TrEMBL record:
Family: Belongs to the CobB/CobQ family. CobQ subfamily.
Protein name: Cobyric acid synthase
Keyword Cell inner membrane: no
One Gene Ontology molecular-function label: ligase activity
Pathway(s): Cofactor biosynthesis; adenosylcobalamin biosynthesis
Organism: Nonomuraea endophytica
Entry-linked PROSITE patterns: GATASE_COBBQ, GATASE_TYPE_1
Boundaries of every CobB/CobQ-like glutamine amidotransferase domain copy: 257-424
InterPro entries tied to this protein: Class_I_gatase-like, CobQ/CobB/MinD/ParA_Nub-bd_dom, CobQ_GATase1, CobQ_N, CobQ_synth, GATase_3, P-loop_NTPase
Lineage of the organism: Bacteria, Bacillati, Actinomycetota, Actinomycetes, Streptosporangiales
GO annotation, biological process: cobalamin biosynthetic process
Domain CobQ/CobB/MinD/ParA nucleotide binding stretches: 6-230
Function, in words: Catalyzes amidations at positions B, D, E, and G on adenosylcobyrinic A,C-diamide. NH(2) groups are provided by glutamine, and one molecule of ATP is hydrogenolyzed for each amidation.
Alphabetical UniProt keywords: Cobalamin biosynthesis, Glutamine amidotransferase, Ligase
CDD domains given in the database record: CobQ_N, GATase1_CobQ
Amino acid sequence: MKGALLVAGTTSDAGKSVVTAGICRWLVRQGVKVAPFKAQNMSLNSFVTAGGAEIGRAQEVQARAARLEPVADMNPILLKPGSDRRSQVVLMGRPLTDVDALEYGALKDMLREKALESLERLRAAHDVVICEGAGSPAEINLRAGDIANMGLARAAGLPVVVVGDIDRGGVFAAFYGTVALLDAADQAHISGFIVNKFRGAVELLQPGLDTLHDLTGRPVYGVLPWLDGLWLDVEDSLALDNRRVVTRGPHGRQTLRVAVVRLPRISNFTDLDALAAEPGVIVRFVTDPAELDDADLVVLPGSRATVSDLAWLRENGLARAVQERKGPVLGICGGFQMLARDIHDGVESGAGHVRGLGLLPVTVTFRAEKTLARPTGQAYGHPVRAYEIHHGVAAVEGGEPFLDGCRVGDVWGTTWHGALENDDFRRAFLTDVAARAGRAYVPAPDVSFAALREERLDALGDLVEQHLDVGAMMRLIERGPPDVPLLPPGGTTRP
């Protein structure tokens, strides 16, 4: 079997990432050597490969679904927004430059060539490459410089399936509109649709599926049912809106309550997935100081804009709430930097000297060169494997050592992402937190986060196998874009 496929979506967070991961897991279980690919990713959730390259976290998960070690070619272009107007461009795993939208346009031709080279290398080394699009292929204002959707499909001759989230409503209009807005050459690559996140009896959906086929001349390859617990290393903070939210109020002493501050430029919030996977641990993403009151642990997570997000903490009263808190606080990467006494940033924000929250004896200095590493160490007597992605370098001037950072009383700080995925360390840390918070919570002794991820990936593979027309999908991958009717602008295939 040889070929490739592009999984596009009607919107961001339609399910492209998880469908791509599910197809990868389904194919690898059929004995197919498959690799994931996303030409251009805009995400603040990233990962460091064994080769020291920074790629989107979703592509790392998709690589795991394909039972591969992730490499830079799987996500050659990563955009990391630092504000509403500027983003860092990461090319082949290394920072290239910071640009606004107009400046980025000048790089598009070069970046497109780099992306196509990465795709060709993956196609040469694997039987099948499953590509993930970005946003929607019908963003016609961006079509001229498109790298990740129809621009990629046409340049590489890829068939395209469009995923739509029926749970948010309007999926039939979104499917039809996606096709109708494209020009004829782009429409020729749109091969069919996948309905995602359906709740209910498929029979009730069938009249709509039939009408969609009549209107577009394209099949629906399947309807994937809603399945709880499949949020896997998502790349978009929009997905936080779908996370479990628990109202404030009394809880049992056996429950541990974690409040994660939802920073405006929150990054690598997937660090907290391992806590949410623990029985008896409630993880909430919060923006109000009052929401910290009943938390047993407050987490300041990573940030792409440390100084800006620190100013936001102060404006919203969260900084004072954290400073005056009597109880455990954990800062990770950007959150750790905010806990420092002093921050010197002439790189990320250009703000120069800024006072931190002063809870840890640390001075942070931002450097132009980004640290990208896969460190190992020990904490609480257990080995820890993690990864680092940061410009700020922390000089620790006191406290107890904690991974690469420090601890003072009930406050911990580290630049290491992924540390909580280490099961023995996580259990020991939570045991200490519970004791300091006066909780009777005891971590479950047998939770393996790695095994849980594998179970989720297998569940995605099962969804694909059981609910998609896998025979038709295989033919599509092998044969490329089929002959499909073209819609005139605002038109229909009906006579």
